[in-house]
Amino acid sequence: MAKSILVYVDHFDGKALPASWEALGAAQQLNQKFAGEITAVVVGHQKREIAEQAIAHGAQRVFLVDKEGLNHFRPEPYASVLSQILRDSEADIFLSPNTGRARELAAMVAVDLETGLSPDVIQLVLEDGVVSATRPIYAGKLFVKVRCADCTPQMFTLRGRAFPKQEPAPDAEGKIELVEVAFPEPVTHVIGYKESESGVSLSDAAVVVSGGRGVSNNPKLIAPQDITDEKEKEIWRAQQGFKLIQDLARVLDAAVGASRAAVDAGYVPYAHQVGQTGKVVSPDLYIACGISGAIQHLAGMRTAKTIVAINKDVNAPIFKLARFGVVGDLFEILPELTEVLRSKLGK
Question: Are 54 and 62 within 8 A, CB to CB?
Answer without folding.
Answer: yes
